[in-house]
Amino acid sequence: MASQISKRGFNNSGDPTMYEKYWKQMGERTTIVIPGWQSMSYFSDVKNLCWFLEPEFGKQVVRLHKVVGNAETDGRHIVVGTGSSQLYLAALFALSPANASQPMSVVSAAPYYSSYPSMTDCLKSGLYKWAGDARSFNQDSPYIELVTSPNNPDGFVRHSMVNKTGGTLIHDLAYYWPQYTPISSPADNDLTLFTVSKTTGHAGTRIGWALVKDPQVARKMTKFIELNTIGVSKDSQLRAAKVLKVVADSCEKTRTSSSSEYNESFFQFSYRVMDQRWQQLREVVNSSSVFSLPDFPPDFCHYHGQVLEPRPAFAWLKCERELQDCESFLRGHKLLTRGGRHFGVEPKHVRISMLDRDDNFRLFLKRLSMVQP
Amino acid sequence: MASQISKRGFNNSGDPTMYEKYWKQMGERTTIVIPGWQSMSYFSDVKNLCWFLEPEFGKQVVRLHKVVGNAETDGRHIVVGTGSSQLYLAALFALSPANASQPMSVVSAAPYYSSYPSMTDCLKSGLYKWAGDARSFNQDSPYIELVTSPNNPDGFVRHSMVNKTGGTLIHDLAYYWPQYTPISSPADNDLTLFTVSKTTGHAGTRIGWALVKDPQVARKMTKFIELNTIGVSKDSQLRAAKVLKVVADSCEKTRTSSSSEYNESFFQFSYRVMDQRWQQLREVVNSSSVFSLPDFPPDFCHYHGQVLEPRPAFAWLKCERELQDCESFLRGHKLLTRGGRHFGVEPKHVRISMLDRDDNFRLFLKRLSMVQP
């Protein structure tokens, strides 16, 4: 399996398999059992604007945001999606006027998530089109700006860059969780995207959610998902609900009880792993003259209750000296990474996944430590 | 719940809740159990062209088609989708050239599935556009023709209508199963769509599959689903695999053994229910002078081993006499149906779902029998 993944170049994808270890420790707590006759209907809750949202999933989303303190949920509609990818497309559909003469420009500050341009332009939509780096956007027409914070690939906290009139923001907060970055305050945006993949590691369930202020926007997003996939897997929503519930339980019980059934909360475990990995990576990078890593300012994390340094899900590694194409250079050393060009910048940077299984991450570090200039 | 559904007009949707009864009888046979640490990765089978296809789901698809005899699977690639809706969009993407000067025309003979036009034109794609009724298509440019057989809404067996050069066909065979129509021979098309919703009634799992001859087309469909939702729920694929397995088991064991653990196969059960419902509906319609129903020629079904009449999932009811808007007329009698306009024809017809729960279907018949001209 590992060698196959390497052959196909998949281990540069950010597959969050690191989390398997925690869920094995949790044993049967998150096992789901679904009898054959359950959840057969298309509909989950016909009274809800988002008629395919499983009520239990919606409930656990609200609860977890309250426990973690990373997003306001009051006065928001929850729209569930087949991962946050589908919700991103649903948001573009919802925020673009149906009868404009020109497609809406979609921008994000480089380096940006490598799939945004191809997802946006895949169908050559007349509603919206990718317009590149938000920093160089200088048109006076309406636009949609994607704000990914902490940012994929470089891990920095982000705010809107364009600040013109006629702009609408989509906040992609997939990584705004306590294992990756200090939680400074609850996000309070018009339209925010989250995904189970990066929260708990359950990428294969394909479940994301949007918190949406404007009911008309939430309704249009729901309509898009209806036309795209007639709703979202109920089985995966039920599984995601159970996983989020155990995460919230683990947070609450380690706070309130000294003799808890949980040794540490999910976020204590995952911050600890991320912290260790970043220290190991920095050691390797610092002992070489070939590479460098960004530095992140520490900040107070209201979840952990202390000042902490960010520990992003990706490391944005720079090849120093004359090396121009860092991805090719590293491939020559059997290190699969994703180069800067994919993210709208020069190829001196590559993105490294920090979320792989222990063995793969160790092998990665070993090979990286052997790279000579 | 029922009253809510009525308020929102959902029971005209074809929600296949009729099948809950069979799956309750099957008890624990189709229960799935998924531990928290399983199926976390994005990837299911990196050696497969469709890298997010769960191998067990692919295996059961092939097995069920062989047992039923309704589709050739040899020399086909299986692409799994979030319902067949997503596969329809993936097929449009795959069959439309990326650099054409004009969007590809997409046609289907009226009456056609009511969602095709809005699904096709939702994003105003530059790759393809809805061009209406296949019967009146008279352009000389390349086109995609959708062949839905048996047809939704009217239940008739369909073949391609356009027959010009430059045409590509998508066969939507969602209803080509032995409970709905005689299985005359295995379908042998270039690109065929199926869905678990209409096969077994598990609409909430959102799982469909495509059988695709050309590997380049299968690869492009896979790419679309990657950009749309980064794959398809593993949980639902595992559940669908188990359900298809029990269906195939029920077919094989009732054939080979007289003392089977199955009293009747899934298709024997579901044909029996459909047959009874159609007889009841015809009785009501025949005793009224207000309505009529189409007649279907009987044919030999290789699955059931006898000549049988089609028992479609929808009844295509016609209002006779001067009644022009059958949907409004019936709504006045608290009967929710979907009128002909949605399907590209005049409003003298309405579509009735034959797949509702027993109680709802009985109530529907009762109200229909009380309609006076």
From TrEMBL, chains A, B:
Secreted: is it a keyword of this entry?
A: no
Task: State the Gene3D superfamilies in the record.
Answer: Aspartate Aminotransferase, domain 1 (3.90.1150.10), EGF-like, alliinase (2.10.25.30), Type I PLP-dependent aspartate aminotransferase-like (Major domain) (3.40.640.10)
UniProt key word Transferase:
yes
One MF annotation (Gene Ontology) recorded for this entry: transaminase activity
**Which segments constitute the Alliinase C-terminal domain?**
12-370
Q: Which Pfam families does the protein's record reference?
A: Alliinase_C (PF04864)
Q: Which domain of life is it from?
A: Eukaryota
Which cofactor(s) are needed, names only?
A: pyridoxal 5'-phosphate
Task: Report keywords, A-Z.
Answer: Aminotransferase, Pyridoxal phosphate, Transferase
Q: Which InterPro entries match?
A: Alliinase_C, Alliinase_N_sf, Ethylene_sulfur-biosynth, PyrdxlP-dep_Trfase, PyrdxlP-dep_Trfase_major, PyrdxlP-dep_Trfase_small
Its assembly, as annotated, is: Homodimer.
Q: According to its UniProt record, which protein family does this protein belong to? A: Belongs to the alliinase family.
What name goes with this protein?
Tryptophan aminotransferase-related protein 2 isoform X2
The encoding gene is LOC107418305
